[in-house]
Request: fold
Amino acid sequence: MSLSDVRALTFDTGGTILDWHTGFKTILSETGAKHGLERNWHDIANDIRRKGLGKMLNLGKDEPPGYNFDGAHRMALEEVITENGLEAFTEEERHTIAYDAPHNFECWSDFPAVLPKLREKYMCASFTILSFRIIMDTARRNGLSWDAVFSCEAIGKYKILPEAYDTVAHYLQLEPSQICMVACHNFDLDAAKSRGYNTAFVKRPREWGNDSPPDPEPNPIHDIIVDDFPSLANALGANP
Amino acid sequence: MSLSDVRALTFDTGGTILDWHTGFKTILSETGAKHGLERNWHDIANDIRRKGLGKMLNLGKDEPPGYNFDGAHRMALEEVITENGLEAFTEEERHTIAYDAPHNFECWSDFPAVLPKLREKYMCASFTILSFRIIMDTARRNGLSWDAVFSCEAIGKYKILPEAYDTVAHYLQLEPSQICMVACHNFDLDAAKSRGYNTAFVKRPREWGNDSPPDPEPNPIHDIIVDDFPSLANALGANP
Reply:
């Protein structure tokens, strides 16, 4: 396996590209303030993410998925509302937190300028457990253009099931060794690696706000380990 | 139903965006010349398309598809080789005609400048029976950026099956009345209309070269009927 064979980059998008923590924390604290509620909005934002991820990873293993990540965000919000005494939040506010906020997540500032450089050399696709609409809406908001969006919503098998990685390689008509998965999460990259992908770990120490990410240390098996996207472009020879 | 409700445009891509006729005719005549063969390459190009389409439309109706449009192009080529005494074509030449040529189709000249204008106002997705790779490769070659690529390859139900249109509306999280299907073919637009989509017929009188298209007269049920893409942008108020 050699990085010189790589033809396509597939990007985890939530977390690696999008700053979900700031997005959730901001709308939660604004909504709380309207109701005069004081809570640890930082922790609640992270809890929505944690619960949402838990509902999505490996979804479709035993039966077809019954919801997408928009549905999971809403279920996760309802749980934290109950657990944190936030029942005053109105239906409209709940929709804004669980739906509008993710569709308006801002992307990390080091990515938009690098994507076009990477696209000059590689096919660059979002490969994500987020819904198509979250990817399409956040791309439009942040001025990103993907070559394609491969949402597990269409595959019916979510990361980190092997079928998800195999299917994307099949759609790309590439051997997995011709693809590099890019993410800030070992669980995603480890799964991609086990299916034959190259892997690039891009560190996102602020993904969970002031908390350290749950698994911050890159697994040394990854082919590229970098601190940011300009460094990834350099490592891939895509920074003329 | 009103066009003012439209949020997304879904584009038939083969034929409507890409000039398959010139692409096939050029490589066929070049390959024939290498072998000193004279044939009606215009007609053979159209026959590859006709046979290919026949293998794709409604594919997946009764059982999961066993091939994508790249496979259909190759099968169609083998048929015209037999029918036209082109057995001298080598395996490499056959791959070039059936695979490389479609992945390098040029797009009609009126589209590239209009797509960014349409994207300012609408989500713009390729919604196609072509393979993901044909769309990704031709987009890169022609400088197009789609918001997403919805290939029937991932849906498993090909146009003009109703499930194809219903699934894309589901992924877009829109009512069909909030989507406008754009194509140069009545069969595609009629099927979209029957599922509640708005429809825009963009004429492509040269799609089949010197032949008139098989069904050139727009069905009057379509919401927009225009001669080219600048006119479509005008009709949709996306031409500032």
